[in-house]
Every structure is written in C-alpha cells, then in structure tokens.
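Incident log, support desk, overnight shift.

02:14 A customer reports that sequence design results differ from what the structure should imply. Their input is reproduced verbatim below. On-call engineer (initials T.W.) acknowledged and began investigating.
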C-alpha cells in the first residue's frame, strides 16, 4: 500500500517539530524497500498552492525541490533557515536547520505525503548501450 496524504497539524514548538521528524523517519523505515534507498522523504502540500519535496542525504544536508507554484513560500523558508534563496528550485542547507524549516513552514502546510522516490529534477546521464 502506498502512502496517502495526511492532513497537517500546525506545530508550535521545537519539541513538536522534532517529534514529527522522528515519527516521519520511523514511518519511512516501514515503507523503504531497501536499506540504501535514495530519493525518499516527504512532500509538503501548501495550503495556498504548490508542493515542497524534502529529502535528507547522508552528507548532512536537507534538499528541497519546490514546484513553481510554491515559490511564493521561498522568503519564508529563507528566513526560517537563514539562507539565501537559490537561483534554482532546488535548495540545500545543513540538516541542523531541519527543525527551523519545519517550524517555519508549519502554518503554510495543508497536508504531507511520504515520498518513496523523487528525482529532484536532476538530469541523469544517459550511458549508451554498446557502440
């Protein structure tokens, strides 16, 4: 069974954000098909439109992929995690800013969905078969 959207409950404290992050991590572990899977995370569907896909990597960074209709939330994210807005729709910042990110966008979120695979719009090199 695939994950379904879950209505969002506004988080007010760092403790609530940390508890939500831990619960998400535990839920993702139940769905992951293999221990070294990549591209998994969560999609925040914003109440005023747009989606933000979040993934953490083994190098200690948070990666965000914002759909074009979610760009209105960029100033809130930049202020919450104290980073400049990137020139692209892909953001990255240290994972020690994850709690601040979750608290910063909490009032903007309508629902979340666990994502088991997301390519973050990275272009993959195509290797020709044979010559």
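02:41 Re-run completed on a clean worker. Output:
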């Amino acid at each position: 069974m695939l994950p379904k959207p879950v209505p969002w409950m506004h988080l007010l404290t760092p403790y609530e954000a940390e508890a939500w992050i831990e619960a998400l991590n535990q839920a993702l572990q139940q769905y992951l098909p293999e221990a070294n899977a990549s591209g998994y995370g969560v999609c925040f569907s914003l109440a005023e439109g747009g989606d933000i896909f979040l993934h953490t990597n083994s190098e200690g960074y948070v990666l965000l992929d914002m759909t074009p209709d979610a760009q209105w939330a960029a100033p809130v994210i930049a202020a919450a995690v104290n980073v400049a807005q990137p020139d692209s729709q892909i953001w990255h910042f240290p994972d020690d800013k994850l709690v601040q990110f979750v608290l910063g966008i909490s009032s903007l979120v309508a629902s979340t969905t666990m994502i088991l695979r997301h390519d973050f719009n990275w272009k993959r090199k195509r290797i020709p078969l044979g010559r």
